[in-house]
Every structure is written in C-alpha cells, then in structure tokens.
Design brief:
Strand content: 25-35%
Number of strands: 9
Largest sheet: 5 strands, mixed, barrel
Bound molecules: hypoxanthine
Shape: globular
Radius of gyration: 16 Å
Number of helices: 7
Helix content: 25-40%
Structural class: alpha/beta
Length: about 240
C-alpha cells in the first residue's frame, strides 16, 4: 500500500498498461482482460488486474499530465515491482500525414520540462522508449493493419497552449504528435530499470482542427490496447 495506491502486495502485475483516464482503465480491463479485479480506487484512479492470454496484466489510470503520471509510475515500479509499463492514450497530430485514428508509437519524447528535470541539473536528458517494446509494438501494429507512425513526440505541460510558434517548430523538426505524459514515463522507467513505451491514438489534429467523436475514439482505442498488450507480453 502506498500513498496513492491501496492495492495489496502482489495485486499489481509486472506488466502495467497506463491510460490517462481511469474510466478507460475500467473499459479496457473489462473488454480485454480475463477475470479483471479492481485493485485500486484511491482518488478515483481505478486500477484493475486480470489476465490476457494467461499473463497477469494491470491496467491503471495515470491521470492527465506528467506530475500525475509520475506519482503512479514511481509507486508502481518502486513499491509494486512493475517492470513493463505501456502508456495507452490519445495525442494531437502535428504532421499532415498523421491522420485521425492513426497509431503513433513514441520512439522519443521531447519536453520543455518534466517533473524529473530538477535532478538532471545541466543535463538535457533524452527520454526514449525501450527498444524491445518498440520493436514488438511496431510488429503488432503491422499485424493489426492500423496505419502506424514511429518517431518523436512532444510531451507538453499545457493542453491549452498559447504558443503557436512552438507547435510550428515541433512540426518543422518532425515531431509526430503532442500528448502530456510519455517523457516522464520514459524517464522514471529508465531511472528504475523498467521498460516503457507509449502507444497513442490520434484523437485530434492541430493543423486541421479535426477531432474524433467519442464513438470513434472507443473503436480506435481498442487497436491501441491490443498493440500494447502484444508488445508488453511478446518478450
Ligand atoms: N495537446 C496535448 N495533449 C493531447 C492533445 C493535444 O492536442 N490531444 C490529445 N492529447
């Protein structure tokens, strides 16, 4: 039991999927896991543990933004022994050829600042995905047939960004999409010797202003969960 997770020792699997939204954790657990059990509900941040193809898996909300994700990633790894953490979530496309419903697999996650920034002092740490997870996710994505892009993303601290010039620089430098959690997940995992990856669905487009309706969000979300499970449990 930790400050933010009241699961019992052994209630959290070594493989954890982290959607931002706790209700997405509930939906994914009911949809994809066998025998899902609620293992945490402190502050409404739901976590479920069950099995997928016989492998124990926990699906736990991370909340929105890096400070929230950082709390859960730290406690899941340090206190509950999580070894493989895959963020599943939505992102906003920053490239014309990255379309709504496409999958983005984040090889690196740039940011202005993560909650870990203070400890690095003058070092500009480059958060990157675990290679074995990345490779397995790309293979799984090819198998599902969903259009998939692999590359750098931007983990922002603001959803309502007032810096259009910054988005322009991101686009120029090939960032595929923006979201708000991956850079800190990769950093915390690296610090504690865990594996991490972010598999994202494009829910909106920064250049065109298009956005998925809630029904399409749900169907696209399914492919992402499958890719994350396949990647996490393939090796
Ligand atoms: N900005 C930040 N995070 C996001 C976005 C966005 O446009 N879309 C989905 N997550």
């Amino acid at each position: 039991m930790t400050i933010h997770i009241d699961a019992k020792p052994g209630d959290i699997a070594e493989t954890v999927l982290l959607p931002g939204d706790p209700l997405r954790a509930e939906w994914a657990a009911e949809e994809f896991l066998d025998g899902p059990r609620l293992v945490n509900e402190v502050r409404g941040m739901l976590g479920y543990t069950g099995t997928w193809n016989g492998h124990p898996v926990t699906i736990h909300g991370s909340g929105m933004g890096m400070p929230s994700l950082s709390i859960y990633a730290n406690e899941l790894i340090r206190d509950y022994g999580a070894k493989t953490l895959v963020r599943i979530g939505s992102c906003g496309s920053m490239q014309a050829d990255v379309k709504l419903r496409d999958i983005v697999i984040a090889m690196t996650a740039s940011s202005m600042e993560t909650p870990s920034k203070g400890m690095f002092r003058e070092l500009n740490f480059a958060p990157c995905a675990d290679w074995t997870l990345l490779r397995a996710a790309v293979e799984a994505a090819e198998w599902t047939g969903t259009t998939t892009h692999v590359g750098g993303i931007y983990s922002s601290n603001t959803f309502y960004d007032e810096r259009p010039d910054l988005n322009e620089q991101m686009t120029r430098h090939g960032m595929l999409a923006v979201e708000m959690e991956a850079a800190e997940l990769y950093t915390v995992a690296a610090r504690h010797g865990a594996r991490a990856l972010a598999v994202l669905t494009v829910s909106d487009h920064l250049q065109t202003g298009e956005a998925l309706d809630s029904e399409s969000r749900e169907t696209s979300f399914g492919d992402m969960v499958l890719i994350a499970l396949e990647a996490a449990l393939s090796n």
